[in-house]
């Protein structure tokens, strides 16, 4: 082979040499990587239950120790709630390199109902699966410990083989993602200078199917409110007052029933202000995926989409806003009968938003919707409101293109550009608080049963996820060489 004649060719060859060494190391140490993941999964780091606080501390210390073990400067940073794990790997050769911030979380959802687990939720195991061959079963296997460890293992393989990483890396792991992240905002304000990077990498997302990687191109936003309707001054005996007295439950249910028109459109004033239709290119791309709408619904016992007429199920999930009634409470709901007309009835409402919608404008429109329908002798009160806008990403950017090619190199198929019907508030926080965009790449699947009994993570997703991150880090270093 002819020796490289310029510095650019030499850098390419060195980078590919280091990548191939890291990939070989990942193959050789697959069992050890799985053992480390199982050790992580045994920690019962349930953030929502104070009884598990010490387990969350244990998970934070374990994570920091793993990062220190492979050469990161890692520390556990206290907060008012669960601690943050913050770690840095900085280049030592003095050459400028791209800088990435990797974000994940070490906390998990409660395991209840325990009786529905096939095996104990914090005793990880490999299990045969009728569709996906071998899977890792445990609480947190997919959300988010398995995903976190794909990145850490990729870094481990690089450092063990070449003594360095191809880019500068900061790792941020939080312990309250499953309990609304109350400490994250203050921590970003306090430690923002330590966290700023060229781009954030967020792993808490899906691939398209078991053999196809994906990059999430946009996230729906969120707005939420709780409305309480008050009628009589106190609860009343329905025999003595039933008929002439306005029942708040009836009033509330009547108004909520008008939120959607028969064609699925939301009836809130100004709700669709700023909403754009999916482009034909987007529609064609989603159509080409061959998404099984009937199978998607059948898995949860349903037979037909209930969103807006004229839109496919994927369009309803990824490109259209919605309103959902998350809970209703009023009157007597205990065992047996209590013939009461309640004084109050409440409902919790959430809105999934698309780019162009303002959460506060949506909440204001909801207030107007309710106020316009209030009868005499009924009053409305709103509480617990907030939200975050939808987030879209530039798919033509250099980081996206580099990551997409790296994923294709590993999986032998181009990644799908997914939308996400859910919200990931940290992504908007990175953009607003740190001026930093994010790249959303994960290896979970919709059937991983996250937040449910028998959560699993495909062994293939874990193994190829580690290799994918190694390729992505190398590709980011190549962007610097090409600059």
From TrEMBL:
Pfam families per record: M20_dimer (PF07687), Peptidase_M20 (PF01546)
Single Gene Ontology BP annotation: proteolysis
Domain Peptidase M20 dimerisation intervals: 226-377
Coiled-coil regions listed in the entry: none
EC number: 3.5.1.18
SUPFAM superfamilies: Zn-dependent exopeptidases (SSF53187)
Top EC class of this enzyme: hydrolase
Swiss-Prot/TrEMBL keywords: Hydrolase, Metal-binding, Protease
Gene Ontology MF: a single term: metal ion binding
Transmembrane segments: none
Database matches in InterPro entries: Cyt/Met_Dipeptidase (IPR051458), Peptidase_M20 (IPR002933), Peptidase_M20_dimer (IPR011650)
NCBIfam families: PRK07907.1, PRK09104.1
PANTHER family: BETA-ALA-HIS DIPEPTIDASE, SUCCINYL-DIAMINOPIMELATE DESUCCINYLASE
Protein name: Succinyl-diaminopimelate desuccinylase
Lineage: Bacteria, Pseudomonadati, Pseudomonadota, Alphaproteobacteria, Hyphomicrobiales
